[in-house]
Amino acid sequence: MAHLAGTDRSQLLLLPEAVDDYVGSDNPVRFIEAFVDGLDLGTAGFVRVQPKATGRPGYDPADLLKLYIYGYLNRVRSSRRLEVETHRNIEVIWLLRHLKPDFKTIADFRRDNRTAFKEVFREFVVMCRQLDLFGRELIAVDGTRIKAVNNKDRNFTRTSLVKFIQEADEKLAGYMKRLDEGDADDDHTPSAGSSRGGEKLAEKIAAIQSKRDRQKALLAELERTGTEQISLTDPDARAMARMTKVGVGYNIQLAVDVKHKLIAEQAVSNQVLDLGLLAQTATAAMEALGVNRIEAVADRGYFKIEDIEACEAAGVTAYVPKPIRGPAVRDGFFSKEVFGYQADRDVFVCPAGAVLSPRHFGKSRDNVKVDYTNRAACKACEMKPHCTRTFRRVSRLENEAVLDRMAARLALRPGVLDERRNSVEHPFGTIKQWMGQGAFLMRRLQNVRGEFSLTALAYNIRRAITLVGVPGLVAAARA
Fold it and tell me: pTM of the full predicted structure?
């Protein structure tokens, strides 16, 4: 039996007469066309929206925006690869009407309009709201780290610089001692071998001295700016915590609506930890969704009393589990949670039934901290080996009632933590694995923010196509 045979390359074919015939009605490029044509690019902040009266004509920002949205939807983020697509990809040829911008023009457009991409992302969020794709009741907030264009060997912390300078000083002292000893030996029995050894030592000393001077200059720059890190390739990138498995990168924050796992708000920060980022992310998502109150769930990394208090003041009902930490837990003693607080009496009751009263007042960051103790009860307590070595001190912040209210909510609704994991992990997995966004292509924080806005927009468009379909989105864009 013969194999399937292709058509002869010299055979004349009756191909469609129009490029439009190659693109079906359910092709995503038709939505990209309708969506971008419905945007007010000038209001969004795009440059060169109005062409100049003189000079060489430039490309319409709408066409370049369509190209980038198509690229991010199809895992093509490089400006050089996008240029190639304009020559060979029938969908891009249809979308750009045979325009073929070079890679420099494409790259400059992304850099020049980095702040405007966030407005395009928000416009699509508004469209999804009109299609009722957001539940607007509960959002899941979480962060992930994405690698920057900066090798970890070109990132320095204050601690690493001080350590290197100290080690360099020790090596230099050792080499100088050996060099002096070699000079003393040469005075008694000069030889060619000892002379060459001294030259090698001198070269090593010069190399270490040069590197030490560079590190000293970096440390002086840290002292001048008051920062803890410095990156040489991308000055805004930071070394992330080891648990994140990302050497040097950026902290990506997402607020995901649990109804359909659509991103309601996204932000990029170079802050290493998530502490302090919950309130600003949740309130921005609440504004984007057009509601006055919303519930937000996050993991233990966001547990910070000032942030929880700010959420409550802004109308965000927070669900954040309390991390089990502190010196007592570290030493194997009872945790603070087993001490019951009685608000009407302002006392703690320990596991043995003793009453701990307020004794000392201090400060924890900007909060008033109260220490509760009962030394007399600790001396005669049979449970002391499980509680403390001397006497037990339990601390409580003056505004800790906000944490008590959140703990009570969590006790009534423990399943909300599973909703967080099931919702926010989906976009992170999709962005990193399916979309291939394991690292950024651009440098500096503002550029990276614009780049990730395109990533988040592409993710939302892909989800919306799955939920509504291309014809439904086209109709909504043209409405």
Answer: 0.86
